[in-house]
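request received
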Amino acid sequence: DLHQRFEVDETKYNDPLVQELEKRKDYIASGFRTDFIYERVLTEAFM
Amino acid sequence: NYTKEKKVGEGTYAVVYLGKQLSSGDSIAVKEIKTSEFKDGLDMSAIREVKYLQELNHPNVINLIDIFMAYDNLNLVLEFLPTDLEVVIKDKNILFTPADIKSWMLMTLRGVYHVHRNFILHRDLKPNNLLISPDGLIKVADFGLARAVPGPREMLTSNVVTRWYRAPELLFGAKHYTYAVDVWSIGVIFAELMLRIPYLPGQDDMNQMEVTFRALGTPTDKQWPEVSSFPGYNKLQIYPSPSRDELRKRFIAATESALTLMENMLMMNPQTRWNTIQCLESEYFKELPAPSDPADIN
Amino acid sequence: YRHSSQFRMWSFTEKNLREKRKKTNERAIGTINEKLRKFIEDNKSSLTEEELQTLRVKASPLSMEEELQLINFYSKKVQVIAQHLNLPTEVIATSITFFRRFFLDNSVMEFDPKNLVHTTIFLACKSENYFISVDSFAKKAKSNREAILKYEFKLVESLKFSLLNHHPYKPLHGFFLDIQTILYGKVDLKYMGQIYDRCKKKITDALLTDIVYLFTPPQITLAIISMEDEQLISRYLELKFGKDISNNTDDQENGVNKEVKEVNKEEEGGVPEKVDDKHEPQNDIELNKLLTIISQCVDLLEKSESVTTDDAKRVAAKNYYCQNPSIL
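response:
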């Protein structure tokens, strides 16, 4: 997809549910990344 | 529309037959899913195969031609793929070149990129799940362990991926892992293609950690934040990470960019391990030798 | 999305959705009438005129509209039971979707909807990686494994083996983020949080209607958000997809149009500087067309009403009798 209709800009998001997870040790150690979550839901929104 | 001619394999939940599609005369594989075996109705692996293959459509992912019910069995009609990468690696009579390896890696990464782009984790990448078509194309197959990328709060089982190809975060029992587990598997396959022997052959789960960390170094919080928070971390034997030179000696045929690609696919920290796009865009695929034309690979 | 099985197999226009239902209903009516004719034929000697009259009046098959009433009524039951089982939102959504799709190709006169309620929820659990063994599921749902498994195959087949669903919840999360970007600093975040929760509930209710066949998940989401706050959505979409350039707005808000302005300068014979097309947003959305679709979706959502228990009982009785004339 050359032109997705969105850009992930985490500095602008207030998303307590997700942002709280990225501080948790088990999430960090597992490789959890918030941009993966954001990329997914934004793709589903702009499909 | 189809014939079942010869039984070519039997797994826990399915029997595979070789057959023909009458309309085209093409060879097909019919995966007949046993239904009586699973006490909870349709088998989870069958549900996963059906669910994800229905959505994927890519030259490097096995093509699901049709599905039908017959005599209370679920039948998946798949394109016929006569061999797989495990056969090629094991058969010492088959000589292959760095250009062949590059071609297989390119096709594998394209197929897995398509799976990931559809927000699906494969979770069982290994040489014998990378099938090869009559014209030499690599096809990612066996989605019996696949699942959609989890939502933020979902817990995942770490008991996935065949042991030798299992990422360190899974060995530690991680429950919030990502696409990175598939990239690790491809990294191990890449090493195996260059060595022509299994790279990290652990005898059991504990030994798998031992073998993995002895070869690639025991991870520390420095390069993998919070790795020490995994249960069992403190009992680990500490091994140093191999120097570049040691890796060169181990993989004598590998170019610098091949080693760089492999190192980044086998990055301990899953957060910084390369994703399929970074792999595909790496120097390794831009430098000579160019990847072989799949049809020319014998 | 166009590659997805949901689009390829389960998206319809209102017209072909109605035709599909009509075909299913007529097939079932044919079977029912054949059985009724045979029943009367076999019993014509013993049937009184009054009984014959009763059969003619009460044993008539269901109309398509009556079928849909029963399907809507039981779809709600699926939602209530799945919620009662504390299943995750997406599993509940998939249960409802499986149930409603099953009755697109199958008539309630062929399969009693109450026999599919647990099976659809059980299959949704498996399909969404929320595996519960059939025995523990039977216990929780006060059912039994035979009843739950009896139609599982038939269900998977009727679903055309398409199990992956795109529900509007992820688009809701996505728009929740993108609105914060486009309207940065201009929306109250606490307020956004309240909207989010209200919309999430409304999405589940929307899945009980035909909306899911007629619109894409993002369109449904935008419609539901606009029912909560029409002004928020129109401002967001205007800035996001609006093409006309209003000069008196600051760059921050108008980042998109700034790029478009540069591109236009090029078209006006300005110095053709290289517009890095990677960042030039692909504005291929016709704003007015999207707004029209959203308002059509809102209208349909506002029109949908739930089926009363009395209506459901009446139709269920009719359904029972037309399949069991001897009891009637």
